[in-house]
Structure formats: structure tokens, C-alpha cells
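Researcher: Next entry in the queue.
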Amino acid sequence: MRIALLEDEQEQARNVRELLRSAGHDCDVYGTGQSFLSGVSHRSYDLLIMDWQLPDMDGIDILKILRQQISWPIPVLFLTQRDSELDIVSALDAGADDYLTKPARPAELLARLQALARRSNPDTDKVTLEYGPFKIDTQGRTIHLNGERLTLTDKDFDLTLFLFQNQGRLLTREVLLERVWGLSRDINTRTVDTHMSRLRRRLGVKPENGFRIKTIYQRGYRLETVSADSAISEEED
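Model: Structure for this entry, 237 residues:
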């Protein structure tokens, strides 16, 4: 997973980051609320870990802003020294999905993160997925639209599946390169844009079928649900 960690204590941040990396996850560390909000809005993360007391903002306020700004329910784990029942209830009421007090036991922290990931993406282990008129067979690697099989390349299938499993989420070009192509996010390439433009036509992702692929300027793409009578036209590069 790609995880954003909001933690202003350097030693604590270093320990958590190394634990996550040793478990195979990517972790970006932010020391202030403002930098965290900026980072989350410009990059794609699978999960967020947040402290409560930051030098510039309150963790609850940060969480409320995130829930208003992010259109998909990204999992959030609070990791803080505050351990009263009132604190825990306040965090959960504000939109946190789980709560751990410091110092967290490494194995428990990793287990909680995996549980959050499973709950946020329950379709991961399903063989047949249905999204409106689209039916995806993950085992046979086929996609049908209104009962008709679409002609897609292997990479088209991988990209389509990833888009549908992350509906409403901003997917940066770097994340798509990593997850779909298996390439480093540091590679500068137009591969993603070329495939996405072609996929729009091949897949039939348009308002009459209930979805559109929206280009987010200088950032990436987002698969959105739209009404059948929507007049919104899709963007092309």
C-alpha cells in the first residue's frame, strides 16, 4: 500500500516508516497538518495514519477537512498518545476508521492496517465484479458491456479493473505506472495518457453507460459515476 503518515515527532515517524517499509509498503511522512493536506490532495494514497496533536493544526480538524475534500472513503487510522474514551469516540465520530494509542505494538499496527485495507476494498477477492452495465471476470480476464464482450488487450484489462476498484479516487500517473505497469513512479512517460485515451473509446465509458474517466489537470485520472442523461463530455488529451 501507499501510506501517508502525519507525525511531527521525528523518531516516532522514522520508526513507523521503517516498520511499514519492512512490510512492503510505501510511506510518505508529513510533519504538519498543512503539508499533509497538500500531499494527500496531490498524491494517491491507499491509507492514512494520523497523529492528533500537530504543531499547526488539530488532528480532528484535519480529518474533517479531508472527509469534505476527498470523494472516496480513504481509510484513516489515528495513532496518538491520547487514550481517553472521549478522545476515541471523538475521532471515530469525525470519520476515523480505527484508533491506536502510542506506543503501538508493531504486529498489531500492521494487522490493523491490513484489516482496514480489506474493508475498504471488499471486491479484491471476488471473481466476478459488476459495475452498472459492466461485468468483469477477473479469472477469465474478460469484460462485458451490456452482455457484449469487449475487445481489450491485457493491459487494457488491468487498467480497467484498477479504475473500477478505485472509483471516485484520484489516481496519479505515477500510481498507475506502479500498479498497472509495474514501473517506477519516477519515470516520465506518456504511456498512461496514451492508454487512457484509447481505453475511453474501447471501453465505452460514457454518461449513457453510467461512468466517465475524468482527466484531472497535471495530476491524473478519476473514474466517476454519472447519470445517464448527463451532458458532461469527456476530456481528451
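Model: The first strand starts at residue 2 and ends at 6.
Researcher: Noted, moving on.
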